[in-house]
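hey team, just a heads up i'm posting the complex here instead of the shared drive bc the drive is being weird again. everything in one block, sequence lines first with there labels, then the predicted structure for the whole assembly after. its three chains so it's a bit long, scroll down
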Amino acid sequence: MKLKLKVWRQPDAQTPGRLVDYLAEAKPDMSFLEMLDVVNEGLIVKGDEPIAFDHDCREGICGSCSMVINGRPHGPRDRTTTCQLHMRSFEDGDTVVIEPWRSSAFPIQKDLVCNRSSFDRIIASGGFISAPTGSAPDANAIPIRKSDADRAFDASACIGCGACVAACPNASAMLFVSAKISHLGKLPQGQPERYTRALSMVEQMDAEGFGSCTNHGECEAACPKGISVENIAQMNRDFLKASVSKRPEVAAGGAG
Amino acid sequence: MKLDPKIPSGPLTEKWNHYREHVKLVSPGNKRKYKVLVVGSGLAGASAAASMGELGYQVECFCYQDSPRRAHSIAAQGGINAAKNYHNDGDSAFRLFYDTIKGGDFRSREANVYRLAETSVRIIDQCVAQGVPFAREYGGLLDNRSFGGAQVSRTFYARGQTGQQLLIGAYQALERQIGLGTVKMFARHEMLELIVVDGVAKGIVVRDMVSGKIESHMADAVCLASGGYGNVFYLSTNAKGCNTTANWRAYKKGAAFANPCYTQIHPTCIPVSGDHQSKLTLMSESLRNDGRVWVPKRKEDRLKHPSSISEADRDYFLERKYPSYGNLAPRDISSRSAKEVCDEGRGVGPTGLGVYLDFADSIKRLGKQKIQEKYGNLFEMYERITDENPYEVPMRIYPAVHYTMGGLWVDYELMSTVPGLFVLGEANFSDHGANRLGASALMQGLADGYFVLPYTIGNYLANVKPSDRPSADHVEVKKAEQNVQSRIEKLLSIKGKTSPAHFHRELGKIIWDYCGMARNKEGLEKAISLVQDLKKRFWSDVSVPGSGQSLNQALEHAGRVADFIELGELMCRDALQRSESCGGHFREEWQTPDGEAKRDDQQFCHVAAWEYQGESQEPLRHEEPLHFENVELATRSYK
Amino acid sequence: MLSRFSESSIGQKIIMALTGVLLVFFVLFHMLGNLLLYANDEGQAINAYAKFLHEVAGGYGIWIARGGLLVLVGLHIWSAIRLTQINRRARPIDYKKHAYKESTWAGRGMRISGIIVAIFVVFHLLHFTAGKILPELHTTNVYANVIQGFQVKWVAAFYIISMLALAPHLAHGIWSLLQTLGLSHPNFNTTRKVIAGLLTTMIILANISFPISVQLGLINLPSSPQSQP
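-- predicted structure starts here --
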């Protein structure tokens, strides 16, 4: 099958980019990235710079791929990352527009590659349970209701790809942030930091320049792992409760 | 070069306790004066960096991905072993130790493996405390499943995404330390050189993959947790970016490379569909809990629709050959059996390189619902890739390169032959011998990072003067930077006609054909000369467009392929020298009449560690003898 | 603490949602009050209701209510402007190609429908409260005002169009505010959509029926309009 590609090329963060046309030949069994590999090898042999794109595991779990294909993050198939999208989802003769994630919190570094370290900083601000190595009690010491463990898992299935941000008309990161707040908030181990976590993660999210949620639901539809917007409601609840009930921290000093 | 494993004396079960109780410590006030570098942010790297940050060291962590959370540990599906014996089925640290030693075909160190087994239980505790949502039973307690090579259920799991969940736990611990300022993270930074001053590892040279800037980082110790080298085969279940460059640079600076020929071919991967294929996708070993592996008994039936082949015409070859372990025979053995039936012409699918993994019986027994609950995401993944519905037609699977047991040689303290250079996780050679059991890689990565290195590195640093780090203009630092720079310039200046990927594919085919599931003398000798020829062509005809001063993925790939080519040659040399069959290393000349691996404990009960001798000279092979005091060197049987 | 809350993106949303809830209640009661037009008593009931509103709490009640409403509307618009600013900044360069999957034009058009509703509210106040548009305003005969007002064709048309703009604003708004306030649960999500739909349909149909009824002559001025002391 033959396709016409319109690919966003941008040499670096400072230079403005544009869509460039390429012709691609593909087989239905190829993955979308393998189709791009072939285009790139053609470019390299000619001495032209290949299209830069992020990819790594190519099995839908590392969260590296970050392309908007024909207006949809990760392309047309539901619950599928770009690397697991196969060319059988396209027709011979299709025109395919490929763009990077677009969000000021994910600045483009080159072509389709963007910088998602804002997600890491959000996690660093509170997306964890403080459990220093060696301090843990026996794993079965605290039973966890199966349904809680399952729901925590549903939220922690997030691969941090940023498709939610890319899909949101407001470039909001609330699905990502809320998934972490739900994951840890559903578990007994996550309770001690539950409310401080909500406050600090939301603060960091805002500082990174993500948009705000206006309940469009595009994030859930684009999420390759099917993370639910229910998590955003949970985050709102936790955030509200935390904002209302927070007391000033008392720093009790003094050596013992 | 002297290979001193530094195994503590005393009875096996007391070695690690004794070590910990007598190891030198660094006082809390002094810890912050030491700087430690960690290369890689997978299970081993992230857990080590986080744990050392918690202890108070100044830590810098590097990864080539855009975020530490993307390391390939994330792709591990099935589970993590731990001798918790929560299920009362007779498990114990000793049993896990024994299974691992036996699974590795008696080619690993007893002391290391026992430490791994006894540490395993603490890993689960640690992960649960971090919020890893392991599978649970209705009573709220942890669930287990079975994995290959074991007769107990000791594998903890989180659906088919155990690696992801464990890595996120470690990543969050790491991010916590980054937030606290004890760890500095350098994402999209690739290590391209090791800085060695007076024989001691004192830093690394990295390339900022976005700006192209070459930077040196000086430290009191360097830890490599940069993963395995499975991508030497081009097609493997590794991530596209996985590479051996960090390890290979260290090897060239004096770290011995141990057992490079021990590679693991995983039996259950989705078969190759065409030349364009860029990677192989694993189907978790856990599927063999409920899936039955078979091929038609007769060649003529191989292209028939599986449902039209009657029960009597099917050969459930694993159940037939290994009745006591059945479909859960270890990986090396299952892979070889699959190759064998395909070599006989009974392989299924269009290429003839595939066997069925059939869930029909389990669906009948447990219901589709239960199967979906256990393996839903794997079935979905299979369907996406192959466009076939595994609930209706059996999966087709074929072995693929998955893991490398070989790696940089380390002693009991995880220190390589270069003092101050520690190696953990898949990057080292230490715990899996000639074959790794399923669900043991996650265990080893986390054991090394959370519970071993934080102790052993203290023992090293206690003897190092605090802050005794070379300055940025030290002659060795400048030399290392110059090496990196000139190599990059050379790659960019060749301006040949062949892409790095093309050379990579060619290398992969040579290694797969001659140093894959079955090896022999002639083939390996041929492979060595083919690889040497490939290396010459690479350095005269590779095309790397663009510049070194910006993000350049072709340049990154070319540098990695260049190292893979050299490693490929070393693998073949190691395989050639090891005139026996053991675990993943199967030499056709050494097999029993019924085709099982035949070890030669008289001559090869040792670790082979290779020392680099210079560009144009053959490397030197050293031996570290293995002593077995607690287990008997038995013929490995799963019948 | 409170300023940190109101500055945060979620705080803004929650302010938007809480003011939204109260405004929905206002719109609902406003509509219910207007239904007295159909009492078929030549306006006695509705005029009495209006009188009650003007005289409650010694005549201060209506001003308190008006002040409250002004604050609600002000906060609602303020949070809308702040959120719009945040969201514009979050994506300075847009995609060349769009393909929405889940979001609706109602959701994406909240700003436009909001602006239309705001213009309508100003007009509505000028029209009935200040009497700037209808010269012969009877200060106390609400019934007559409504009928005379809606007898002007373009006025009736403007009211109808404005209500049609309010419809998607309410539909998305009601559903959305429940989500924002954290009321989201799989067992309840369909109900949530149904509630939003029913409430919107009820309010809009009733509101639209007033100008239509006047235009169709279903409600008329009494033959000799009574003036009350």
